[in-house]
Amino acid sequence: MKDLVHTCKVALIQAEPVMFDKRASLEKVLKYIDAAMQQQPDLIVFPELFIPGYPIGMNFGFSMGKRTAAGREDWKKYYDASVVAGDMEFQALAEAARKSGTYVSLGFSERDAVSGTLYNSNVIFEPDGTYKIHRKLKPTGAERTVWGDANKDYFPVTETPWGPIGSMICWESYMPLARVALYQKGITIYISPNTNDNPEWQATIQHIAIEGKCYFINADMIVRKSSYPSNLNESETISQQPEMVCRGGSCIVDPYGHYVTEPVWDQESIIYAELDMSLPAACKMEHDAVGHYARPDVLELIVNER
Fold this sequence. Notes:
alpha/beta; Nitrilase/N-carbamoyl-D-aminoacid amidohydrolase
């Protein structure tokens, strides 16, 4: 591990997306970047699928062997609100990263410019406006009816003054080998954009921080029943959701598994923290999952990055 800049200042954004609205979601991202810059963070982190929102509870008319015309219509609205990498939205985000001089991590629904397939993706912009995209390896459960399996951009890492930063989207973190693929790249900050407010998730993120000897940034959102557009066909399903569909729980955990910031529930918030970047190295004294606490003669992970 190279010598690292001692402190990384993080602004973790827990906010409500503007569901099915690409432009309004982008405007909200840019406003939050401006607001966060009052504290001069080095890294700003947004939740999973923040553009154009995570449609929790919707089924888009899918059932075994069947689809509906109304569901296709709702899906097309989500498709239209998804983002093609490099288009206007990316240019605006790249400019915001350049203007602020920060690293910006953002979850978005990516529309492939050629095939039109949607991917659940996360992008990390660097202060010069360049970026790397990670596509979710395996959409979880019914997500598979909306987003495809990643066909590239499996385990990109962004080199920073605080060490390599990588991301795993929500339940990707329950894929042990995927976690190790990031550990092998020496990540010091593990970003998890997600929509998981289950209490057991908090145990998961603490475990991963200890296992990887890295900081875990748990980036969740809040979603209210009123967040959904009124013109969707799937109104009956949406009406059955609780008032608070996703409660958040965003927080940061250190490499010992301790909360740097406690989980925040049921509200929009910018969570600020200063990370002591001496800890990821100091923790390696007792445990290094891909180093002295590994047995490469017995166990080997082969990653196909293509």
